[in-house]
Each structure stands twice: as C-alpha cells, then as structure tokens.
C-alpha cells in the first residue's frame, strides 16, 4: 500500500479501528495535526478531542480519544489512547450528564475536572460531526 | 450389613453431585480461558505500540525521568502480588504467594523494607492471617480485570514511587509478582521489577509484543518536547504493563482452575467406582448371610422335626 497510510487506533484493551487511510487529523496538546502520506516521523501527545480518519474509500471515520499519543513513522500511524471510542459507540446521554456534572462545580476543581469537561465535549462534538450517525 | 450398604449408597450419591459441580466449574473455566486469552490478545497492540514509542524516546533523547531514576540507596520496595479472588484453582494462589515470599526474602536481605500491595482476596487473606500490613488491596476482578483497575493500581504505585526518600509512603522500587500464562498446561509465577523502568530492556511481556530487534526506529520529532512526551508516555507504559500482568494472571487462574477441577472430577469418578465396588460387595455379603441364615434355620427346623 504505497499510496496510503496504515492506521491503527488502539485503546488499552482493544483495537478500535485499523485499516488503510489517506488522511488522519488529530489534536495534540499544541494544536491540530494532519497527517498525509510521507509525513515525517513524529511522536506527539494528544489531548481529549476528536480524531478524524479519512479512510481509503473516502468515508470518514470519527472517533474520540482521551489523550494518548500519535506516532507517525514510515506511513504508519498509530493512535494510542486509553479509552478511544468510535463515534457510533459514544453514549450521548452519558456524555451530556458527565458534562453537566463536571460543569456544575460539584466536583473538585482541578485538572481532572477540566479533563472530564474536555472529554465530554469531545464526545458530544464527535457525534455532531459524524453526519452518518 | 444393610446399614453400611445404605451408607455407601449415600456416599456414592454425594460424590456424584460433587462431581457434577466440579465438572461444571471445569467447563466454565475452560470457556472463560478463551475469553481471557482473547482479552490478552486484544490488549497486545496497545502494549506493543507503547513499547515502540517508549523505546523511540529512549533511543533519541537522554532519558532522565523520575520514573527511570535509580535511587542510590534504595530503602523500601513495593511488591504488588497478583492472586485470585477465589480458591479451587489448585496451587495457583499458593505458588504466587510463595514466589512473593521468595522475592520479599531477597529484598530484605538487600536491606530493603517491603510495602505490600495486593490484588485478589486470596493474597489479602493470606497476609491478614499472618498479621502483615498490606498498604492497599484491590479485589473483586481477578478473572476479568479491566483497564481501569490496572490504571488505578498504576497511579497508586507511581505516586508512591515518585515521592522523595523519607516521605511517608515512599518506595524506591516497585516489583510485581504475577503468574505468567505460558500455555494451558504451564503457568509460572514470575517476579519482575517494574520501577525504576529499564526502558531498553527486552520486553518482559513475551516476544509477541516486543518490536523486532532488527527494526530500525525512525528519527522521530517529538511534540511538544521529548520530556513532555516521556512524561505522558511512561505512566501509561507502567499501567499497560500492570494491565498485562493482570490479564496474564487471569488467564493463568482460569487455566489452573480448569486443571484442578478436571482432576477433581477424575477423582470423583475414581471414588464412585471404588464405592460402587464396596457397596456391591456389601450387598453380596448381606445376601450370602441371609441365605446361610435361612439354610441354617431350615436345617435346625428339619433336625427338630426328625427328633420329634
């Protein structure tokens, strides 16, 4: 597969998505990163956000990652994230409830709460973005 | 005679019902092993990629991180002992605990004190019975551990590891004792040192998850910086190693249970056979005795009539 990327999106306990793709967009702690074929090897830290994979047949796979890493090397892209989810697997109600709870201020303020807000927002956004859903 | 015959029958019956139970447990364990193995396999890609990433960072940057730093004078060591929640798995828990004792012995001889962290009720009970303090115990998941539990254990251990020497609850080394699943027939208790991390080491977790040695790692760029990447990477690496240990232990536990229950079922078969024989013998003896009593009675009657 010389003209496409081999992408693996893996969570801690399973492979969420893997296959050939033409483009991967993810959000690192420094901002969005788009990976096309021939990208320089990079290893970066992701933040809680949407991951977009344009697969070889043109369809777009939306997923959400809760931090983790993106590593690109020799047209192989691996996205590691403890709890990665495809948009179809997102529980919208649970995400909304989590967002409410985190924003209501009942949780101790701190990084963890911020992280939860970002994660819940990312979950909701991925569902909005994924028009096929 | 009739009494013991009834006793034997009762014994046969109870052995039969025990056999049914052990057979059921054997089958359940057998079907769960497959699931446990699948879970272990499903977790392998994550561990593999993580290992690659860690070795990439380690190769291209000067690794200097709290988690890889060797204490010059280690005083305390944490030992995480992974056992099962339930028994009836042969020597499974006992052999892990024995391995843990061996490790503890060695660490003590090196002048280190031991902080115990355990998973599984068996280890908890073992140490409570011996009156040895356990810093923290996690129970209730031994045959299907979730990543959340592994992550929590990892966080706890890392938190005590990064504390400065002299601080409350500080440890300078972290060891894990778990049972490695080699095959359905062999599971071996293993002790590995988890922290400080030796990043360049050959991956302990089996050849399947180690990147090929011949493979040249590409020259990565690190975003935002090698330090930050390492900061995020290493705790995850530790957690994934713990998760791996838990999964292996779960598969081993089930395999051990299957084996134990299989021999229990076989034993029950043996016993039933033996009891049936003895019961038949007793029945025969009873019949023989009755016949000889009747014959004796008849003879006595005949004698009495002949005399009259």
TrEMBL record, chain A:
* Recorded superkingdom: Bacteria
Matching entries from Gene3D superfamilies are given as: F0F1 ATP synthase delta/epsilon subunit, N-terminal (2.60.15.10)
Q: What does this protein do?
A: Produces ATP from ADP in the presence of a proton gradient across the membrane.
- Protein name as catalogued: ATP synthase epsilon chain
Looking up InterPro entries in the UniProt record yields:
ATP_synth_F1_dsu/esu, ATP_synth_F1_dsu/esu_N, ATPsynth_dsu/esu_N
Going by the UniProt record, its keywords in alphabetical order are:
ATP synthesis, Cell membrane, CF(1), Hydrogen ion transport, Ion transport, Membrane, Transport
Q: Please name the CDD domains in this protein's record.
A: F1-ATPase_delta (cd12152)
| Pfam families cross-referenced by the UniProt entry | ATP-synt_DE_N
One GO CC term on file: proton-transporting ATP synthase complex
Which SUPFAM superfamilies does the UniProt entry name for this protein? Epsilon subunit of F1F0-ATP synthase N-terminal domain (SSF51344)
What protein family is recorded?
Belongs to the ATPase epsilon chain family.
Q: Does the keyword Zinc-finger apply?
A: no
PANTHER family associated with the record: ATP SYNTHASE DELTA/EPSILON CHAIN, ATP SYNTHASE EPSILON CHAIN, CHLOROPLASTIC
Q: Which HAMAP family match?
A: ATP_synth_epsil_bac (MF_00530)
Identify the species of origin.
Nocardioides flavescens
List the molecular function annotations (GO) for this entry.
Answer: ATP binding; proton-transporting ATP synthase activity, rotational mechanism
Subunit structure, per the record? F-type ATPases have 2 components, CF(1) - the catalytic core - and CF(0) - the membrane proton channel. CF(1) has five subunits: alpha(3), beta(3), gamma(1), delta(1), epsilon(1). CF(0) has three main subunits: a, b and c.
- All copies of the ATP synthase F1 complex delta/epsilon subunit N-terminal domain together span 5-84
Q: What is its main location?
A: membrane
Subcellular locations according to the entry: Cell membrane
What membrane topology does the annotation report for this chain? Peripheral membrane protein
From TrEMBL, chain B:
SUPFAM superfamilies in the cross-refs: ATP synthase (F1-ATPase), gamma subunit
CDD domains linked = F1-ATPase_gamma (cd12151)
GO terms (BP aspect): proton motive force-driven plasma membrane ATP synthesis
Kindly give the membrane topology term recorded for this protein: Peripheral membrane protein
- GO cellular component terms attached to this protein's record: plasma membrane; proton-transporting ATP synthase complex
Chief location category: membrane
Query: According to its UniProt record, where is this protein located?
Result: Cell membrane; Membrane
Classification via InterPro entries: ATP_synth_F1_ATPase_gsu (IPR035968), ATP_synth_F1_gsu (IPR000131)
Q: Which Pfam families match?
A: ATP-synt
An example molecular function term from Gene Ontology annotations = ATP binding
Entry keyword set: ATP synthesis, Cell membrane, CF(1), Hydrogen ion transport, Ion transport, Membrane, Transport
- Top-rank taxon of the source lineage equals Bacteria
Fill in the subunit field for this protein: F-type ATPases have 2 components, CF(1) - the catalytic core - and CF(0) - the membrane proton channel. CF(1) has five subunits: alpha(3), beta(3), gamma(1), delta(1), epsilon(1). CF(0) has three main subunits: a, b and c.
Q: Which family does it belong to?
A: Belongs to the ATPase gamma chain family.
Q: What does this protein do?
A: Produces ATP from ADP in the presence of a proton gradient across the membrane. The gamma chain is believed to be important in regulating ATPase activity and the flow of protons through the CF(0) complex.
Output this protein's name.
ATP synthase gamma chain
Q: Which organism is it from?
A: Nocardioides flavescens
């Amino acid at each position: 597969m010389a003209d496409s990327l081999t992408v693996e999106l893996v969570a801690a306990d399973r492979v969420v998505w893997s296959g050939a793709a033409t483009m991967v967009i993810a959000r690192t702690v420094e901002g969005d990163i788009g990976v096309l074929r021939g990208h320089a090897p990079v290893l970066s830290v992701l933040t809680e956000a949407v991951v977009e994979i344009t697969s070889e047949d043109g369809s777009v796979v939306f997923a959400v990652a809760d931090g983790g890493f993106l590593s690109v090397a020799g047209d192989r892209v691996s996205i590691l994230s403890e709890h990665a989810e495809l948009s179809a697997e997102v529980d919208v109600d649970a995400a909304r409830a989590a967002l409410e709870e985190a924003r209501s201020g009942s949780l101790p303020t701190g990084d963890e709460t911020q992280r939860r807000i970002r994660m819940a927002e990312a979950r909701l956004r991925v569902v909005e973005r994924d028009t096929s859903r | 005679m009739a009494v013991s015959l009834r006793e034997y029958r009762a014994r046969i019956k109870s052995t039969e019902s025990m056999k049914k139970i052990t057979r059921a447990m054997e089958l359940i364990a057998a079907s769960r092993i497959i699931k446990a193995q699948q879970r272990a396999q499903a977790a392998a890609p994550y561990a593999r990629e993580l290992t690659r990433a860690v070795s990439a960072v380690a190769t291209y940057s000067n690794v200097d991180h709290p988690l890889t730093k060797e204490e010059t004078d280690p005083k305390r060591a944490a030992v995480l002992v992974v056992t099962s929640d339930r028994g009836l798995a042969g020597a499974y828990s006992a052999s892990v605990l024995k391995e843990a004792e061996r490790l503890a012995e060695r660490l003590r001889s090196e002048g280190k004190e031991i902080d115990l962290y355990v998973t599984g009720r068996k280890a908890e009970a073992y140490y409570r019975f011996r009156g040895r303090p356990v810093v923290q115990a996690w129970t209730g998941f031994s045959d299907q551990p979730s990543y959340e539990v592994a992550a929590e254990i990892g966080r706890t251990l890392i938190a005590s590891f990064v504390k400065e020497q002299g601080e409350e609850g500080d440890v300078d080394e972290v060891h894990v004792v778990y049972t490695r699943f080699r095959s359905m027939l062999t599971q071996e208790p293993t002790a590995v040192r988890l922290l400080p991390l030796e990043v360049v080491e050959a991956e302990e977790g089996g050849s399947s998850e180690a990147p090929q040695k011949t493979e040249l790692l590409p020259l990565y760029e690190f975003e935002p910086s090698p330090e930050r990447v390492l900061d995020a990477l290493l705790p995850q690496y530790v957690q994934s190693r713990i998760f791996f240990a838990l999964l292996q232990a779960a598969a081993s536990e089930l395999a051990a249970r299957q084996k134990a229950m299989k021999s229990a079922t076989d034993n029950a078969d043996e016993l039933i056979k033996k009891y049936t024989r003895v019961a038949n013998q007793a029945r025969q003896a009873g019949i023989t005795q009755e016949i000889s009593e009747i014959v004796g009675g008849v003879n006595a009657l005949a004698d009495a009539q002949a005399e009259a």
